Amino acid sequence: MAPLFTAALASPNIALIKYWGNRNHELRVPSNDSLSFTLAHLQTRTSVSFKQDYERDLLILDGTEAPEAARLRASNVLDRIRELSGRSEYARIESENNFPSGAGIAASSSAFAALALAGTAAAGLAFDSRQLSRLARLGSGSAARSIFGGFAWLHAGRDDATSFAEQIYPRDHWLLTDCIAIVQPGEKKVGSTDGHQLAETSPLQKARIEDTPRRLELARAAIGNRDFDALAAVSEQDSNMMHAVMLTSVPPLLYWTPGTLEVMHQVQAWRASGDPVFYTVDAGPNVHCIAPLNFQQELAARLRDLPSVQQVLQAPIGAGATLQLGQSSTSG
Ligand code: DP6
């Protein structure tokens, strides 16, 4: 019996060497390579079903019909799937996150990795992970990395064909965790898609991009050698460099709040006194605190004690996107 729905699971990832700015905004070809690890426990589940009688794609997010902009973004990925599979039907997409949508965790990386996998499977396409990564990238640049578990490297490339991620170390290579200190839940004012357009207006962006191969090599070697101090130094520098670009773009982007700074200072103080932890901050105010897994519980407890921290999410290194085939009529 043919499956009535095709669903996929995917998790967000946290970049230690980040990209900021696009070489091609429409295709989301990033300006520089990036390196991340995928997060366990946090998950998006997305199902896709194509049907002859739909008049357009429908996107249901956490049980509610999504705003038009989100629907069009998903349709853009499905258009590519239709083009490649020779299908013309529209689809119903249902997507749910198991983490609070207001918590300020970028759900686009897991959302588009799950959509790429569920969408291709529903259309009968058997894509390899590189093809899936390229497809996920069309929805969100960072989603290209969430196809993979463990540590992933996104090659910025020059065009659609050369812009994809690959796994560089499996998840059990090094047991690290991300304790995400939520200092301000809710939607950020300027999303990544708009932020990427501003990157070029900063006089620091060129220098950041030119220095990226050095940081990537330091990070790759640190991960290979499981050298925590080396990874801490280059990751914090990379995060600071991206925020230096944001702060100096026109108009400037200031994602940090007093709470962000409180956690950053505290993390540096803990590390100075010998505790293995470093910070990295994405396009938002919340602080990702990276530590060995055996320090997770204590770190999370200490973070929760800080006045500006409202919640701590704990996410060790996780697996890549996976498919779920089913025949239930209730699962959409
Ligand atoms: C700061 O992948 O969120 O997280 O393509 O507009 O969805 P869109 O951008 P997105 O940009 C990621 C920016 C970053 C750094 C990174 O993950 O490398």
Task: Summarize the structure in short.
With 332 residues, this protein is an alpha+beta fold. It is built from 9 helices and 16 strands. The protein binds ligand DP6.
Give structural attributes:
single chain; 332 residues; alpha+beta; 6-stranded mixed β-sheet; 36% helix; 24% strand; disordered C terminus; binds ligand DP6
Number of strands: 16
Average pLDDT rating: 94
Oligomer: single chain
Are there runs of 5+ residues with pLDDT below 50, and where? Answer: 328-332
Helical stretch tally: 9
SSE-based structural type:
alpha+beta
Strand order of the largest sheet: 8-7-9-6-1-16
Helix content: 25-40%
Sheet with the most strands? 6 strands, mixed
Structure description:
- This protein has 332 residues and is of the alpha+beta class.
- It is built from nine helices and 16 strands.
- Strand 13 (278-280) and strand 14 (287-292) form a beta hairpin.
- The protein starts with a strand and ends in a 6-residue tail after the last strand.
- Residues 328-332 have low confidence and may be disordered.
- The structure holds ligand DP6.
Please write out the topology.
Elements: E1 5-10, E2 13-17, E3 22-24, E4 29-30, E5 34-38, E6 44-51, E7 58-61, E8 64-65, H1 68-85, E9 90-97, H2 108-122, H3 129-139, H4 143-146, E10 151-155, E11 164-169, E12 176-182, H5 192-198, H6 205-224, H7 228-247, H8 258-272, E13 278-280, E14 287-292, H9 296-304, E15 311-316, E16 322-326
Parallel strand pairs: 7-9
Antiparallel strand pairs: 1-6, 1-16, 2-5, 3-4, 5-10, 6-9, 7-8, 10-11, 12-14, 12-15, 13-14
The chain binds ligand DP6.
